[in-house]
Design a protein that fits this description.
heterodimer; A: alpha/beta; five-stranded mixed sheet; four-stranded parallel sheet; B: alpha+beta; 7 helices; 11% strand; binds flavin mononucleotide; binds iron/sulfur cluster; binds FE2/S2 (inorganic) cluster
């Protein structure tokens, strides 16, 4: 059965971002249905029943997270939309924001209704200048039509939405760093617990959801949990946006049900490898923080549980592909530099560990590696993992551990030959 | 005392103070307004905005230095930011950067002597499908090679 595009159904239309285009194909009818037919609590249940898992990276069940909000507490509740999209290899939220902002907005409004929130925030990375303007225009259109503001569609439900621009810091995608940033501070992650559902923005109960998660809420609002749960695989339900970049012919964002084979994404959706004479060497299925799969292990299904069983994660589905021309040490060095630059510096293992990785990998790549260096990499990684305030520690420990484990011979060759066997250092900049 | 910003910017910042449930949230948007007016955020403006929001100037300095998009010194008329992160690197970001350095006669992190262009190396800009790519001022340019880079430089005055 051919898969009907759901999240990308509007992106090829003329003026895809305008509210007229969106409403011409039934847009905002899902919201109207929710406001009319569901109590907030009933819609939380509906989203639970859909099985929708968060698309921001951790795959936590969306309705379950909403259910953690405390009952009967006399404090405002906030919904913060995570549009920070900074995980290297990830560019799917951007597509939704630029090409179908109302699909996202409708989900935000329905979700805010479900969690009884009257003030939502849209935290978008500062570098997304164009997407931010598009989204702000969409917000104005929605306000003019009465989908935002007071007494939305006569339901008595009020919602205000503030678009807030980040200013260049990968760590602000981590949900508690995002809250700090929204409060006008440096984006330093908070110690959890307490979780944001109890003590979040301004000390109030707060839900943070990814852009794509909320676009999926729109689909559930339109067609219901039972229909939604029929897409994908058990416990891994719904459509998904998969990013693929690197050495494929046609890099891009591809929509498919959760559970599509990685090799199908590479060879059919992305048109196969870029150079016919350079086969696949490795793929990272979930964004730069996730573990690498050597080619021999790439026969996997792209969903949360299948990838966990394969020893990696779906993460943000920011997949990238490397062919046989790539030096793995050089690739890891590139990532180590990224993480060293982006560490917020609060935790010693993360701040110092990322610096160590850069130093050791630089000397390996330059042919100055020493015999103990490879074990040292793995050892430092094991000391970072699990010993930090936020999961950024794992986000660098996992690549280091997995690149070394899967390509140990290649690391060794850098030491024994006192040079990069592929000569990557020369081409690097 | 004269304001370190234009009256219009001052009014916009005042409006921000009541836009959020807490005043503190006005800081990042206020810093953007200041940078929009001046091209960077001078120390006098940090003190001024600290006073508006009710935090110390040192706190504002901490915020300004934490976020890479806030600048404490002026830059060139055009800012070319080349993404150097792995997905872009796999498709030749290094060569694009080298070409730019050669054409402009400067290294990354520097500004041309005539003040026309500042060249920076940055991390993933969330557009890896167009790799290798760069952002110039507020626009993204993808699928770069020596030829497209030359054509872009031609247009930047
Ligand atoms: C270092 C780090 C960076 C993150 N960056 C993002 C991001 O850019 N976008 C995002 O939605 N989630 C990001 N997350 C995940 C968020 O913390 C959070 O789990 C997510 O926004 C929750 O939304 P969801 O439940 O809808 O997936 C990041 C997490 C970490 C540890
Ligand atoms: S793990 Fe790293 S990024 Fe996260 S809080 Fe600690 S130092 Fe900051
Ligand atoms: S790696 Fe360059 S835009 Fe993502």
């Amino acid at each position: 059965m051919a898969f009907e595009p759901l999240l990308t159904r509007n992106i090829h239309k003329e003026n895809p971002a305008s509210i007229a285009t969106y409403m011409a194909s039934g847009g905002y009818q899902g919201l109207a249905r929710v406001l009319k037919e569901f109590t907030p609590e009933a819609f939380v249940e509906e989203v639970k029943n859909s099985g929708l898992r968060g698309r921001g990276g951790a795959g936590f069940p969306c309705g379950v997270k909403w259910g953690f909000l405390p009952k009967g507490l006399d404090k405002p509740r906030y919904l913060c939309v995570n549009a920070d999209e900074s995980e290297p290899g990830t560019f799917k939220d951007r597509l939704l924001i630029e090409k179908d902002p109302h699909l996202v907005l409708e989900g935000i409004i329905a979700s805010a209704y479900a969690i009884r929130c009257n003030q939502a925030f849209f935290y978008i990375r500062g570098e997304f200048h164009g997407p931010c303007r598009t989204f702000e225009r969409a917000v104005e259109e929605a306000r003019a039509k009465g989908f935002l503001g007071k007494n939305i569609l006569g339901s008595g439900f009020d919602l205000d939405l503030i678009v807030y621009r980040g200013a260049g810091a990968y760590i602000c995608g981590e949900e508690t760093a995002l809250l700090e940033s929204l409060e006008g501070k440096r984006g330093l992650p908070r110690i959890k617990p307490p979780f944001p559902a109890l003590i979040g923005l301004y000390g109030c109960p707060t839900i943070i959801n990814n852009v794509e998660t909320l676009a999926n809420v729109t689909l559930i609002a339109e067609r219901g949990a039972t229909w939604y749960a029929g897409i994908g695989r058990p416990k891994n339900t719904g459509p998904k946006l998969f990013c693929l970049s690197g050495h494929v012919k046609r890099p891009g964002v591809f929509e498919a049900p959760l559970g599509i084979p990685l090799l199908e994404l590479i060879h059919e959706h992305a048109g196969g490898m870029m150079h016919p004479d350079r086969p696949l060497k490795a793929a990272v299925p979930g964004g730069s923080s996730m573990k690498i799969l050597p080619a021999a292990n790439c026969d996997v299904l792209m969903d949360f549980d299948s990838l966990a069983a394969a020893g990696t994660s779906l993460g943000s589905a920011g997949g990238f592909v490397m062919d046989t021309s790539v030096c793995i040490v050089d690739a890891l060095l590139n990532l180590a530099r990224f993480y060293a630059h982006e560490s917020c510096g609060q935790c010693t293992p993360c701040r110092e560990g990322t610096g160590w990785f850069v130093k050791i990998l630089t000397r390996l790549e330059n042919g100055d590696g020493q015999p103990g260096d490879i074990d040292l990499l793995a050892e430092v990684a094991s000391r970072v993992e699990g010993n930090t305030i936020c999961p950024f520690g794992e986000a660098i420990a996992w690549p280091v551990q997995s690149y070394v484990a899967a390509f140990r011979d290649e690391f060794e060759a850098h030491v024994t030959q006192s040079t990069c066997p592929l000569g990557a250092a020369a081409g690097r900049s | 005392m004269s304001l370190p910003v234009r009256p219009e910017t001052d009014r916009q910042i005042d409006a921000l103070l009541t836009r959020f449930p807490r005043k503190g949230s006005a800081l990042l948007p206020a810093l953007y307004l200041i940078q929009g007016e001046k091209g960077h955020i001078p120390e006098a403006a940090m003190e001024y905005v600290a006073g508006k929001i009710g935090v110390s100037p040192a706190f504002v300095m901490g915020v300004v230095t934490f976020y890479t998009m806030f600048r404490r010194a002026p830059i060139g008329r055009h800012h070319i930011q080349v993404c150097m992160t792995l997905p872009c690197a796999l498709r030749g970001a290094g060569g694009v950067m080298k070409h730019l350095e050669k054409r402009l006669g400067i290294r990354r992190g520097q500004t041309t002597p005539d003040g026309r262009i500042t060249l920076s190396a940055v991390e993933c800009l969330g557009t890896c499908d167009t790799a290798p790519m760069c952002q110039i001022n507020e626009d993204d340019h993808g699928h770069l090679d020596a030829k497209t880079v030359d054509a872009i430089l031609e247009r930047l005055q």
